[in-house]
Amino acid sequence: MKPGPVKTVALKGSCVVGFDGTQHVLWRDGEVVFEGSRIVFVGRGYSGPVDQWIDYGNALIGPGFIDLDALGDLDSTVLTLDNGDECNMGRMWSEDYLATGPRESYSTEEEVFKYRYAFTQLIRNGITTAMPITSMYYREWAETYDEFASVAGVAIELGLRTYLGPCYMSGMSYWRADGTLRHHWDEARGLAGLDAAERFFKDFEGAHNDLIRGALLPDRIQTCTPKLLQRTAALSRELNAPMRLHCCQGFGEVAMVKRLRSASPLAWLEKLHLLTPRSLLPHGIYTDGDQDLQRLVDGGASLVHCPVVFARDGEALNSFGRYRAKGINLALGTDTWPADLLENMRQGLNIARLMEGDGSLTSTLDMYNAATLGGAKALGRDDIGRLAPGAKADITVFSLRGLHLGPLFDPLKNLVLAGRGDDCIASYIDGRCVMHDGQVQGVDYLALQQQAQRQFETLMRSHSARAFGQPDWKTLFKPAIPFADTYSAHMPLSAIDPLS
Asked: I need a surface site. Which of 153, 193, 301, 379 has the fewest CB within 10 A?
């Protein structure tokens, strides 16, 4: 069947974020015009033929956000909030669990559903390009080719631009009964996972008119052997594939890498030729000072900053502004619930200024740039993260009418200070309207939330198997406020219907 004629669509808004070839610029009462998947005009007074005009009124029309550690899960990190150590509450593996044989917490269908739920949330929050992340603690091992073939189908159906590939690893951390952390290794399994990732890349790179691209996604630096990372580096060069590797995110990780590899995590990655412009590194918090940071600059690797998830544990990047001033490219990620990059910009800005003891090193625009231009640079692209002629028509519309935004004085500052992801009322990806009036096209929100609630209880129940002694799963999750009708310290979840 022949494709239909390409439509020319023009969007109007009280504020439009354009790109002048160097930086974002703001147009008052601006217009964005696109034909098919490409933008043809940004500014004011377009005089060409238009098939459809859409006037969003008092709204900020801007580039879609790029989330490079995008929550692709029913988030498990929220379960650690005020519930004690990950070891004791059954999030991480115990040696008893490893001895009995790790197992999947979800069925195959449930694994795919979590991506449907997560991708819907990403679109709902103004994210148009995503490189998803999920936890491996709940898996029998890592992700599979067949699973991600289905995930690609979900992304195509919803219209989300994604960088996909099955996560792979050659080991997993686990806790011993004496409280020490150890690592279980299965290098053959890791190498088989890399083979599956290569096959997925070759099969899906550029699929669905380039909406789907491949990526190499090893799990974490402490769960990968040198051989696995060396082969990843070689394959990344051969395929020109982006490679994401979580590192510098905890004292335990840094200590382990130094003990096993006799180097800091970034020094070790440098030796493995994994600090390149294709490298995306969440989270970069624990480094060996300026020498490590210079390694990032010299190699051209990007850091993916996820301020919210670390702030919950009292951790933070020591200086977003100083990293940026050194020439390190910074992108943003959500990594946890809520999948809201505006929230990460707001908290990231406040945290940066607290850590820096200064209000001048990190600006509102720095955070917005990280969510747009920084993410595009990390992916080696100049056609997303901006609204300019020739760029992809990845466009978001944020309402500026909300009472919670207060009196308007600057559209971006208002949104970062008081906005939230669901202020996004419309989203276009590759020229397709994937969300209109806050409704992601083709998604039944109530049914989606009901299944997510049922599935999340399955996830919570699985904590019992991983915790020492396999305690009743309800005892592992403590309410913020004790329930008046029970004298126990745990929350009787079975007595609550969250959807009633």
From this structure: 153
CA–CA separation, 86 vs 80, rounded Å? 7
Beta strands in 116-227, from DSSP E residues, in sequence order: 127-133, 161-164, 171-175, 181-185, 212-214
Structure tokens at 15: 């504020």
What do you get for the CA distance between the two ends of the chain, in Å?
46
CA dist., res. 337 & res. 125, Å (int): 12
Q: For 406-449, give the DSSP string.
A: -S-S-HHHHHHHH--GGGEEEEEETTEEEEETTEETT--HHHHH
485 vs 237, residue with greater confidence: 237
CA distance to 49, 139, 219, 233, per residue, from 168 (Å) = 50, 11, 6, 14
Judged on CB neighbours under 10 Å (0-12, 13-18, 19+), 407 is exposed
User: How far apart are alpha carbons 368 and 96 in whole angstroms?
Assistant: 45
Mean pLDDT value of segment 337-347: 98
The candidate with the shortest Cα–Cα distance to 93, out of 222, 228, 183, is: 183
What single-letter amino acid sits at 165?
G
CA 334, CA 470: separation in Å to the nearest integer?
31
* Strand 302-305 versus strand 8-19 pairing type: unpaired
pLDDT tens digits along 111-137: 999 999 999 999 999 999 999 999 999
